[in-house]
Design a protein that fits this description.
Length: about 325
C-alpha cells in the first residue's frame, strides 16, 4: 500500500517453526516492523492473537486478541480489522498521515474451500507436492466454483506440475488446462493479475517451443498488463524478466529480477535469475555477493551458484563443492 513497503506472505512463511528472534527475522527481510501472532481453532470458535513489534528496539507497538465464531466471513473480517489496526499503529508511531484504510476482500463464502486453499498455498509456494496441491484446489473448486484465488493458483499449477516432475501430462495438454482455468478466473474477475500472468507464461512457453505465433513484444505486453494491475506480482516480474533476457534486454531483465527479489526474498526463481543475470552481464563480484547473501538467508542452495562466475572469480573450493553435488552430477559414478 502507499507509504509502506510490505514483504510478501510467501517470504514471511519461510520463518514458520524456525527458532529465530524478531530482530534477526527483520534483519533478514530488511524491514523494521514485524507482525507476529497465532491462530487457534476450538470447535466452532476461532481465536486470533496478533502483535506489532518494532524490531529496532523489540518494542511492542500494538497487540490484540480476537475471538469470533468460525465462519468464512469472520475470517476475512478479522484480517480486515487486524490490518487496519496495524496501519493505525504505524501511522501514529511513524507519523505517516498518507496511509489509508485497508480493505480485505472476501474471496469465498465457503470455509471448507478456504481451508483447502490455505493447505495448498504453502505447497505451491515451496514448489513441493504440487500434485497434492492441485487436488486440494480441485476439491476447493468443487465446493465453490467461483473461488478466484483457487482458480488462479490451479491455473499456474498445471504447467508447474509438468516442469517440476509432478505430472506426466504433455506440456501442450497442461497449457490447455491452465489456459481454461485462467480464463475462468478472468470471467469472474477481469482484473486478475495472476490469471493474466499465467496466460502470458503459457504463450511465451509455446513460442519458445516453436508452437506459438506471438512476438516477444506481444508477450512482454501481456506481463505489462498483469503488472499494471498488481505491480507486486512476483511471478509476472520473473516471467517478464525471462522474456527480456530472450531479446537481449539485460538491464530490464535484471531490474525485474531485482524487483521480484525485493518483494519475495525467498522466491527461488527470482534469486537464481538475479544471480545468473549479473554473471551474464560480467558483474561477477556482484553476482558472487548476491549468491553469498542468499546462502546466508537460506534463500537458495549451494548448487544454484553461477558456475562461470565461480570459475572466473577463482572460487575453486566453491566450484568443486557445487559440481560434486548429486543434483548437478546425479547418476554419475567415479571413474
Amino acid at each position: 500500500m502507499k507509504g509502506l513497503d510490505i514483504v510478501s506472505r510467501t517470504s514471511s512463511f519461510q520463518f514458520k517453526g524456525r527458532e529465530l528472534g524478531i530482530p534477526e527475522i527483520a534483519g533478514l527481510l530488511k524491514v523494521r516492523h514485524v507482525v507476529e501472532g497465532s491462530v487457534r481453532k476450538s470447535g466452532e470458535t476461532i481465536r486470533v492473537t496478533a502483535q506489532l513489534i518494532d524490531a529496532s528496539n523489540d518494542k511492542h507497538l500494538w497487540s490484540n486478541t480476537y475471538d469470533r465464531p468460525l465462519t468464512a466471513e469472520n475470517i476475512f473480517a478479522i484480517q480486515d480489522e487486524i490490518a487496519n489496526s496495524i496501519v493505525t499503529a504505524l501511522s501514529q508511531t511513524l507519523g505517516l498521515s498518507e496511509l489509508g484504510a485497508v480493505a480485505v476482500g472476501t474471496s469465498t463464502h465457503n470455509l471448507s474451500a478456504y481451508e483447502r486453499f490455505l493447505q495448498a498455498r504453502p505447497l505451491f509456494n515451496a514448489r513441493v507436492r504440487l500434485d497434492e496441491a492441485d487436488k486440494l484446489l480441485a476439491d476447493a473448486l468443487l465446493q465453490d466454483p467461483g473461488f478466484v484465488k483457487a482458480l488462479e493458483m490451479r491455473a499456474a499449477l498445471q504447467t508447474l506440475m509438468v516442469e517440476y516432475g509432478f505430472s506426466a501430462q504433455s506440456r501442450q495438454d497442461a497449457e490447455r488446462q491452465s489456459d481454461k482455468l485462467a480464463e475462468r478466473a478472468l470471467a469472474i474477475e477481469p482484473q486478475s493479475s495472476a490469471a493474466l500472468a499465467v496466460l502470458g507464461k503459457n504463450a511465451a512457453t509455446a513460442v519458445e517451443d516453436r508452437r506459438g505465433t506471438k512476438s516477444y513484444k506481444e508477450l512482454i505486453e501481456m506481463f505489462d498488463r498483469a503488472l499494471q494491475i498488481d505491480p507486486r506480482n512476483a511471478s509476472a516480474l520473473n516471467w517478464r524478466g525471462l522474456r527480456y533476457l530472450m531479446v537481449g534486454r539485460m538491464d530490464e531483465a535484471l531490474a525485474d529480477f531485482a524487483s521480484c527479489r525485493a518483494i519475495e526474498p525467498y522466491y527461488l526463481p527470482c534469486v537464481e535469475n538475479y544471480i545468473s543475470t549479473l554473471g551474464d552481464m560480467g558483474r561477477d563480484e556482484e553476482s558472487l555477493q548476491a549468491w553469498r547473501e542468499a546462502l546466508n538467508m537460506s534463500a537458495t542452495k549451494v548448487y544454484n551458484a553461477d558456475l562461470p562466475v565461480l570459475a572466473r572469480m577463482g572460487e575453486e573450493l566453491a566450484f568443486k563443492l557445487v559440481t560434486n553435488d548429486q543434483q548437478i552430477l546425479g547418476g554419475l559414478e567415479p571413474a
